[in-house]
Design a protein that fits this description.
Elements (H helix, E strand, L loop, with lengths): L4 E5 L3 H6 L9 E5 L4 E3 L13 E2 L2 E7 L15 E8 L2 E2 H9 L5 H5 L4 E3 L15 E6 L2 E7 L7 H11 L7 E3 L14 E6 L2 E7 L2
Parallel strand pairs: 1-11, 3-8
Antiparallel strand pairs: 1-2, 4-7, 5-6, 5-11, 9-10, 9-12, 12-13
Bound molecules: magnesium ion.
Magnesium ion binds next to β1.
Length: 205
């Protein structure tokens, strides 16, 4: 396998506000390497370099064919799977780097920072801009969102990203998190749902 993971930051207004960030005028884009992938049902081990790893539950799009300069109108044709993932973020490290005006790459791209579920064919969703999703932590709902609340739609994101970066089959796009991000602790049980279907099940170790 040879793929890349593209992350979108600040794509839900309630989350932008909870971190006291500014609403972006264009999408905030970052990348995670392939080594960030964590397969479903594998444990996530807290890394030693952070005291504040936070969960960000996100709808994940898998790209089905290569594209560059994809038009927003045809962007949906490039999606071959929809799943759920967690964009684990070392918030302490990110805040330190942000304060210095430095890139926060390491706070997002570390090993196993991207657990991803199996993918569901997009045809199973009547409207990809109206998908409910949530994260339960130890049986309690911690984050809840709907793709209708995105600042930048999935088609817009695909068009925008592909102006700069060629998208290839197998690439994943993490489309942003709603409010409710918080720290994970050892023994936490994280369960991710798309429309009441549990697709992601991860323990923190
Ligand atoms: Mg995120």
């Amino acid at each position: 396998m040879n793929m890349k993971i593209i992350g979108v930051g600040r794509n839900y207004l309630d989350h932008v506000r909870e971190l006291q960030n500014e609403k972006p005028e264009t999408p905030v884009i970052f990348m995670k390497p392939e080594t960030a992938l964590l397969r479903n049902h594998q444990p996530f081990y807290l890394p030693e370099f952070s005291q504040n790893i936070q969960h960000e539950i996100e709808v994940v799009i898998r790209i089905g064919k290569e594209g560059k300069h994809i038009s927003e109108k045809f962007a949906h044709k490039y999606i071959d799977g929809i799943g759920i993932g967690i964009d684990f973020t070392a918030r302490d490290l990110q805040n330190q780097l942000k304060a210095k005006g430095l890139p926060w790459e390491l706070a997002k791209s570390f090993d196993y920072s991207a657990p991803v579920s199996e993918m569901i064919p997009p045809s199973e969703f009547p409207d990809i801009q109206n998908i409910e999703f949530r994260l339960d932590v130890n049986g309690q709902t911690r984050q809840k969102g709907n793709t209708s609340q995105m600042i930048f739609s999935i088609s817009f994101l695909i068009a925008h990203i592909s102006k700069y970066i060629t998208l290839k089959k197998g690439d994943l796009i993490f489309t942003g998190t709603p409010q409710g991000v918080s720290s994970v602790q050892i023994d936490d049980h994280l369960e991710g749902y798309l429309e009441n279907r549990k697709l992601l099940d991860i323990y923190v170790k």
